Amino acid sequence: FLYGVCDSLQPAVGYNWGAGRKDRVKAIEKCCFTASALISLVSAVVIFLFPTQIISLFVKNVDTVFMSTAVLAMRLFSLTYITRWLSFATQSYMTAVEKPIYASVLSVSTALVFPVVLIALLWPLELTGIWLNFPITYLLAAILATVILLRFKKEWRKAA
């Protein structure tokens, strides 16, 4: 759902951006970012509260050691969704408003830079460090997305 909402943002914002309808761009942005946040928060809560049920959809007859490890992994991964939406929505938004450098910086940082650096930093935590890599990566991506959005808004106001 999150990918769908963020992907649907691009043509709507791009069209209105090209037409100079900044009022519509702002309205679509608000709608998309709000929907993305809600979808992500619901996902985080569901994954955090029902990890055993979700795991059971994919594996049957597992021992308690596996299940306890998988539950911990799911709960740690669920934290990713608290901030994941912001980088996804911002990346789509930046693409739509003709800011490919911002979108690319966010994409490369999220997919490569942050995870690689965090693997090195979280290595002492072993398997838990690997699972923490996801939520910390997306927390850093959310911070970067916020900086990008603030910079873009400042540029936008200056140009107006």
Automatic annotation (TrEMBL):
<feature type="transmembrane region" description="Helical">
    <location>
        <begin position="101"/>
        <end position="123"/>
    </location>
</feature>
<dbReference type="GO" id="GO:0015297">
    <property type="term" value="F:antiporter activity"/>
</dbReference>
<keyword id="KW-0472">Membrane</keyword>
<dbReference type="InterPro" id="IPR002528">
    <property type="entry name" value="MATE_fam"/>
</dbReference>
<dbReference type="GO" id="GO:0042910">
    <property type="term" value="F:xenobiotic transmembrane transporter activity"/>
</dbReference>
<feature type="transmembrane region" description="Helical">
    <location>
        <begin position="129"/>
        <end position="150"/>
    </location>
</feature>
<protein>
    <submittedName>
        <fullName>MATE family efflux transporter</fullName>
    </submittedName>
</protein>
<keyword id="KW-1133">Transmembrane helix</keyword>
<feature type="transmembrane region" description="Helical">
    <location>
        <begin position="31"/>
        <end position="59"/>
    </location>
</feature>
<keyword id="KW-0812">Transmembrane</keyword>
<keyword id="KW-1003">Cell membrane</keyword>
<dbReference type="Pfam" id="PF01554">
    <property type="entry name" value="MatE"/>
</dbReference>
<dbReference type="GO" id="GO:0005886">
    <property type="term" value="C:plasma membrane"/>
</dbReference>
<dbReference type="InterPro" id="IPR051327">
    <property type="entry name" value="MATE_MepA_subfamily"/>
</dbReference>
<feature type="transmembrane region" description="Helical">
    <location>
        <begin position="65"/>
        <end position="89"/>
    </location>
</feature>
